[in-house]
Amino acid sequence: MRRINWSWLRTKGPRLAERLIPLVALMLLGLLYYLGIYSERTGFVEQVLDPNLKRVTNPVLNAFRGKPPAVPLLDIRLEDDALDSLWSMRDRALEAGWVEAQMAHPVPVKLHSGKAYKVATLALREGHADRLSDDRWPFHLRLAPGDTLLGMESFDLQAVRNAAPLYAWLFQQAVGEEGAPAFPVALSDLKLNGRDLGLYALEGRVDSTLLKHWGHGIGPVMRFDDGLRNQAELAMSARRYPSDPPPQSEWLSAPILASRMNTVLSNPVHAARFRSAMAALESFRSGTVPASEVFDAKGFARLLALSDLLGAADAMNWWNLRFLADSVSGKLLPLPQRGHSGEPIRNLQALRSGRSMRQGPPSSDFVDRILYDPIIYQHYVAYLDTFSRPGWLEGLLERNAEVLASLEKILSAELPGSKFEVDIAEHCRTLIQQNLSPRDLVLAYPNSTGDRVSVANVHALPVEVVALITERDTVAFTRPVLLWPRERDRPITYTTMPTPASGRSGRPSAVLVRLVGLENTRSVSIRAITILRAQ
């Protein structure tokens, strides 16, 4: 056995240790950095260790990725009995599978933000109970009338778990820039009775402050109640095998409610407006009144087109929409209060039910019923064309780049790697452009004598034939000939175009066509075949 040279260690050891200290320190820093990143990415700190450990790791991480902007801190304080009440409601919700409005009783709280306390009420936010499985519950907070926080009197508090708040903020910004009622979206750290719950998104709700800001009157604000749909979904999820949704899950079965119903009904003027608006919604639902006579046609079309571009189709689902009765026009303004944004769309809103746009009848889908109205549909296509043109999306991002970058830094400090993906909007824009300018819109053939033309729509959207191009002239029709798309399970059908008024124009060589809702036309050559007869 080799003996240890103690004399060598005594003389050389201190100098060797002195040389190794920087290397060991560097290794420890690297290990600390790795563990910090790994802990945040996997949720280990949030789910296993005390959340206050973030106060140790975050400064180290921020040294590498740059210090994020300051975030408002909401410190909510409530009495023990109020906290017990929230826990009791949470347990009942987990058992039921859903947080319903009637079980989400608000409790009094004090909200500390900045230098002063504000009086408010706090409740669990309605929705699926699976979001209550950890300590970062979703809440609904309402301040005393007339009091605001970040410009909001009433708002939802949602735990930030991904980049969704960035897309929600941009969608609402785009809605506001287009002159429509928009909801504020903000980020804030949240404490509940001293416990750090991390980063939350604040999503505005309809309140007196917003109504005054929008300038369309005091309402009422209405919605289709989704309680029946929620219960149907819970029942379906409890079944062993997939099944079709029951009829009570559709908007056609949903009761119509107004926000603050008791207050509305207690005021004769408000009650009369509510009854009038409810009658209009019921007339639309029954099919006796077109959508453009009930809703703001341009406003609805604009929102549908924006939701296509920014991947916010979910926000236009009937259970995420509210409707504000405009005090001047009497029309209902759609308010996309909830729903996801930044989702790559699979198809246009006009085609999301899987059907081509047909003359009728529409499906039971809510958006199909809206776009079945020709006025709203034509505005929708025109807005799609505007929003998908080169430069429109870039302009929106440029105008909001500074705030969006600030929000992204805040988010990445909490969730490293989370960022705004512009590729999603670019995908949506490409899909829109390809639907508005497909290679093939129609097929055109001469009939057996060669003096008339038979045309079939091969696109999924309605097309108009506006003129015939002949050997010597372009002969416009008095009224464009409308060609509906074929049904999915049926072959194409041909329509014979009217004969040109003057026989001296020569034989037709092409047709001028356009999508319904657009002004620009395209020339489609008549194919060289003479045996086809119009059906």
Looking at this protein, list some descriptive labels.
535 residues, alpha+beta, 7-stranded mixed beta barrel, 38% helix, 21% strand
Helices, strands, pairings?
Layout: H1 6-42, H2 44-47, H3 54-65, E1 73-77, H4 80-96, E2 98-99, E3 107-113, E4 116-124, E5 127-128, E6 139-143, E7 154-159, H5 164-177, E8 185-192, E9 195-204, H6 208-214, E10 221-224, H7 227-237, E11 256-258, H8 261-266, H9 268-286, H10 291-294, H11 297-309, E12 321-325, E13 332-336, H12 366-371, H13 374-387, H14 392-399, H15 401-414, H16 422-436, E14 442-446, E15 453-457, E16 463-470, E17 474-483, E18 495-496, E19 508-515, E20 522-525
Parallel strand pairs: 1-8
Antiparallel strand pairs: 1-3, 2-5, 3-4, 4-6, 6-7, 7-9, 8-9, 10-11, 10-12, 12-13, 14-15, 15-18, 16-17, 16-19, 19-20
Helix pairs in contact: 1-3, 11-13, 13-16
